[in-house]
Amino acid sequence: MTWLGEQLGRIADDMPERDLGARAIEIHQRRRRNFTALAAVVVVVVTVLAATVGVRALPAEPRAAARPSSPPEQSTIKVGVVPTVESVPVFVALTKGYFKQEGLTVEPTIITGAAAAVHQVEIGALDLAQTDYAMVFKVNEMGKEFKIVSGLYQAAQGSFAVAVNAKSKIRTASDLKRKRIAVPNLTGLGPLALTAVLKRAGLTLRDVVLVEKPYPDMVSALHSGQFDAALLAEPFVTVGRETKHTRIVEDAMTQEFANLYTAGMTATDKWIRGNPRTLAAFQRALAKAQRLIASDPQQVRDALPRYTRISRAMAAGVALGSYPAKLDLTELQRVADLARAYKLLERPADFGSAVVKGG
Predict the structure, then answer these.
(1) Is there a contact between 266 and 147 (Cβ–Cβ < 8 Å)?
(2) Number of helices (H) and strands (E), helices first, in the chain?
(3) DSSP designation for 318
(4) CA distance 322 to 127
C-alpha cells in the first residue's frame, strides 16, 4: 500500500467521503513542504561546513619574520669596514634601509684592515668591525676575547693578487726577493696569503720587506715607485689593470687558498653579551643584504662606486666572489689550518670561543 493510501484509510472514519481526497492531498503537500524546508536547511549546513573546511585547507599566508618585543640596546652603532668588495653587504643593507627596518642606525667607518680594527673594537671606538678569520684566531690565541658574529665574503679567482708597476722588471714571484711589498696590515690573512705565494717561489717573508699601506692608496703608490709590489684586493686589482698602472705577477687566491672565506664581522665577547638584541638586529639586516646579492649580483657593482674610488665602468669588470649569509665551519677550519701551516697560529683554533652562536 502506498503512503497516500495509508493516509486515506487512516482518516476515512473521521471525514466525510467527499473530503477524503482533499485532506490526504493537503497532508501530503504539508509533508512535502516540511521535507523541502528540512532539505534546504541541510544544504545550507553542508555548504557552510564545506566552506569552513575549505578555508581551513587553504595554505596559510606566510608570516612576517618575528621581531623582538624590545628594541636594540643600542640604536646607533659604529661599524668598521675595509673599502673592498668584501664589505659590500654592509653598504647594500644601508642603501636598502635594512638596518633602519631593524631599528638601527649604522655608521660605517673606513679602516685599513682587520689588524688595525682590533684595538678600536677592543676600546669601544667601534662596536663591530670587518675582520679576516685568521686575525680573530690569532688575537684569541694571544688572550683576547673576540668572536666572529657573521660572514661577509668568499673569495674567487682574481679577488686578491700580487701586483707590480706596469713598467717593473719583476716578472715572477721569485723576483720579489729583497723587494718592498705593500700590505694593508703586517699580520692577518694578507701576509698569510703572501707567505704562500713566496713559498711557491722558494722564498719566505724574511726575504722581503713588508710595508703597511691602505688598499685605496696602493695603485698610485706603486705607480710612483714608493715600493716594488703590493698585495691588492678588488676593486683595486681592476683599477690598476684598467689604468694600466700595474701588472699582475700572481693571483693570491689559487691552490690551497682557492675560494677561501676571507672576511666576516667581529665584536668583543663583552659587547656581544651586553647587546644581544643589537647584534641580532645587525645580523638579520646583513643576512638580508647577502641574500639579495645572491639573487642579484648587480647590487655589488651598483654599490662599489658609492664607497670606493672607482667608476661604474670599472665596477663592471671587477672579479667577484660570493657573500654567504651563513658561516660555514668547514670553511673556517680551512682558514685555521692554513694559519697553522704558515705559522701564524701556534695552536689549533678554538672554534667554541671564536664563533658566536647563530653567526
Answers:
(1) yes
(2) 15, 10
(3) -
(4) 25
User: Does any domain span residue 68?
Assistant: no
Do 188 and 113 meet the contact criterion of CB atoms below 8 Å apart?
yes
For the stretch 295-352, pLDDT in tens is 999 999 999 999 998 999 999 999 999 999 999 999 999 999 999 999 999 999 988 8
- Taking alpha carbons only, the member of 299, 321, 254 closest to residue 92 is 299
Whether residues 210 and 196 fall in one domain: yes
Residue 145 lies in a domain: yes
Tell me the C-alpha distance between 175 and 170, whole Å. Answer: 5
Q: Is 359 part of any domain?
A: no
Helix (H, G, I), strand (E, B) or coil at 14: helix
* Three-class HEC string of 208-235: CEEEECCHHHHHHHHHCCCCCEEEEECC
**Domains in the chain: how many in total?**
3
Calpha distance 265→44 (Å, rounded): 62
Find the CATH number of the domain harbouring 253: 3.40.190.10
Same domain for 278 and 131: yes
